[in-house]
Amino acid sequence: LFPCAFRMRVWEASLVFYFTCFIVAEILRWIVRTFVPKPPNSLTVQLLNEFIGTLQICTPMFDVGTILETYGLFGVFVEITVIELANCYMIRDCVASPCPIVTSCYRKRKILRRALYVLAVQITAAFLSSRLARLFFSIGVHPVHLEVATNYDCSTDLSVALTTGAAIEGAAVLLGKCVETVASDRYADSWLQYLVNSSFAGFICALGINFTGLYGNPIVASACTFNCLGVSHLGHLAVYWASPIVAWYISEFVLGVEDDFEEIEEEEPKKEVEKREMKKEIKSGKKDD
């Protein structure tokens, strides 16, 4: 579709893809801010932002395989580092991972309802992220992307035993949390903190991508490989969900850092709020009399 497609290099086409993902996310956030008549802390807005953030996290990951085949492990390192660095500045108002949700539910049972809402939104966004990626690839910015768009067969990235894969994914999450904590202590709220975290994410991904795909995030792993050939659903859940969640919980226990997932109650209908306020006014009027 694009005359320049055959002259464009793969990494340039990938940059266009990433840029498109971030632009779409920002447009969706603008739509939420402009057209959703709810306060920013309402459950509706929170869930919409969670959907957008998860979409932004998952969609670029569908290009990692292309970079790996074209540029090897160093290309993956650069790609993941750049994406994570961009997310540090551009992603906001979302969790985009089930790990802190599950561990917070273990500590605070009362947030279970909202956690289920958020998890459902994350799964929906993960499912749609593959459609969004395929839609972009079908445009034909690069012939390699066209091949990906027309290939509907997928296979798991797991090339080792389930126990080994679970250990690798869990260790990656645990090490990532350790690096994140150290970087936060030494370079709090500075660009160095973001650079250290992003570089380590790129390094650990390049280190383990040939064994498990090294996702480090259950929702991203499911977006890319759930229901693919090569591993059962139960095996997928054990490697990419159970192991990272357990590792996240261990990191909170060892490091003493808790990622609290606070409850946000659903907003009441306007009429109910007005009735309650009217009752308060009547009661206060009687007291004055």
Written description of the protein model:
With 289 residues, the protein is an all-alpha fold. It has a single domain, classed as Glycerol uptake facilitator protein. Helix content is 72%, strand content 0%. The protein has eleven helices and no strands. The protein has helices spanning 10-35, 43-58, 64-90, 99-107, 112-139, 143-150, 162-186, 191-208, 218-225, 233-255, 270-288. Helix 1 runs parallel beside helix 3. The longest helix is centred in the middle third of the chain and has 28 residues, at 112-139. The protein starts with 9 loop residues before the first helix and ends with a helix. Mean pLDDT is 86; it is low at 263-273.
Task: List descriptors.
single chain, 289 residues, mainly alpha, Glycerol uptake facilitator protein, 11 helices, 0% strand, globular, Aquaporin-like, Aquaporin_11/12, transmembrane helix, channel activity
Write a brief caption for the model.
The chain has 289 residues and is an all-alpha fold.
Provide the number of structural domains.
Answer: 1
Which class do the helix and strand fractions yield? mainly alpha
How would you state the average pLDDT, rounded? 86
DSSP strand content: under 5%
Helix/strand order, N-terminal first = HHHHHHHHHHH
- What is the CA–CA distance across the termini? 78 Å
Work out the radius of gyration. 22 Å
**Any idea what the shape is?**
globular
Give the name of the CATH superfamily. Glycerol uptake facilitator protein
Helical residue percent band? over 70%
Please count the beta strands (DSSP E, at least 2 residues each): 0
CATH class category label? Mainly Alpha
The CATH architecture is Up-down Bundle
Q: What fold name goes in the CATH topology slot?
A: Glycerol uptake facilitator protein
Give the count of helical stretches.
11
Q: Uncertain runs with pLDDT below 50, 5 residues or more?
A: 263-273
